[in-house]
């Protein structure tokens, strides 16, 4: 079973061999190619870890900061957190489009580095005064009015999310790594281990930063994302020439949207005035049917449109996942966090949802190796997605019952971030089942969706497919914020109250669980469309494009000798 270090070393060796086979030789006196590649890989890994460290450092205690420092009600604090996560998910798509058409990759990565630096630098300004800094036994008092604090806070979050998007889209995009020759088994293994590494990093962040922000120095806590962002920018500067990857420009997000809108327009005109039978409504965008796009472009969009039902059913699932930094966080904040004389950080409970993922990935690797070893099997990860969706629904339902159970305990006083709160005396570990169920769901759903989005489209459309997956995941975050606002307004604050013991938060969870159960049944009904990966990859679905066939033959001839020497090794890529 491969581990993270083995994958990283294998990736470096594979890329070095690939460069040597391409005929690139280092001049005399220069650094050896293998050492240079190792240096680049280490820098990429540092950038990835620093960027994730910054992101999770901002998210982990945002609700506590918004409620205790900015005076937000609970539902608004939850909405701010979900909108920030959604914006950070969507900005890589926007930045990738800007880099391709308007600004240029080198110039844009410098702009995004500056925005990332500016956003993380402004966050400590919002948290002034620094109560832990003393001069002559007196506190430094540099406060901002509430209105100016909120303006600076929102501006900092926006600039930080734009910077995060630039780093994810330009420095380490998915297309920068050589995964074209990997089969379904290798791709699923790759996505499993990548998400394993990301969640291991987030576990460290949730334990360390959340404790510092909450218990040691709450105002200095936002300095940690600032330092992490500074480290990321220094690393990018060290290897800026090698890390800015230039993808192929044979397909784009605008072309895909253009095909869809052209087909809709032509289809409406033809339906009104003429009746021309075509195999698919997207065929109306072809030049020989009155459209403006080539057959290759339309066929690629058709393969992508086949995944739209899969993407759509991920929206509500992502809304459930977003309960960890919103509804579940509020439940934990209003529970007893004392454990053996020690006050646990609120965000540290997130580690309980990460532990199942860290345990399940090695087990799933063994299961996948056994299932994919048989050539006659039609194994598809859709069963993982169905089980994961069901686990998410059960998690939200368990949160509803936990809320009923929590309110039965008497209230006690508890100090969080120097704020005295009335909370339930129920130990926070009683909420563990709902965290565990969501962790199981993430271990099953996210790698499987990434595999289907990457594998079930032609090679030239894979980047676009991953962009659409990111768009729908971001839509799920904003959908969660909309549901919270609707529930709070429609029930006059009862379903998502500011003081949980005075409202009915459990009804919100039961409502969301019922929606997720319907969502699970809906995906189960269409899961058969993605069941047979081997058939889809060989029978006209991905190989029906003439250009695609020629490309495959050309690559087969070019790489014949290299296949005898080595095989592709998986490497970390960007998570969307």
UniProtKB/TrEMBL annotation:
Keyword Protein transport: yes
Any Gene Ontology CC annotation: membrane
Gene that encodes the chain: SLC15A5
Species: Geospiza fortis (Medium ground-finch)
Function: Proton oligopeptide cotransporter.
Species classification: Eukaryota, Metazoa, Chordata, Craniata, Vertebrata
Listed GO biological process terms: peptide transport; protein transport
Any one Gene Ontology molecular-function term assigned to this protein's record: symporter activity
Matches recorded under InterPro entries: MFS_trans_sf (IPR036259), POT_fam (IPR000109)
Gene3D superfamilies per UniProt: MFS general substrate transporter like domains
Keyword set, alphabetical order: Membrane, Peptide transport, Protein transport, Symport, Transmembrane, Transmembrane helix, Transport
Listed name of the protein: Solute carrier family 15 member 5
Subcellular location: Membrane
UniProt membrane topology term: Multi-pass membrane protein
Ranges that cross the membrane: 53-72, 79-99, 105-130, 151-171, 193-212, 219-239, 342-361, 382-401, 435-456, 468-488, 508-527
Family statement drawn from the similarity comment of this UniProt entry: Belongs to the major facilitator superfamily. Proton-dependent oligopeptide transporter (POT/PTR) (TC 2.A.17) family.
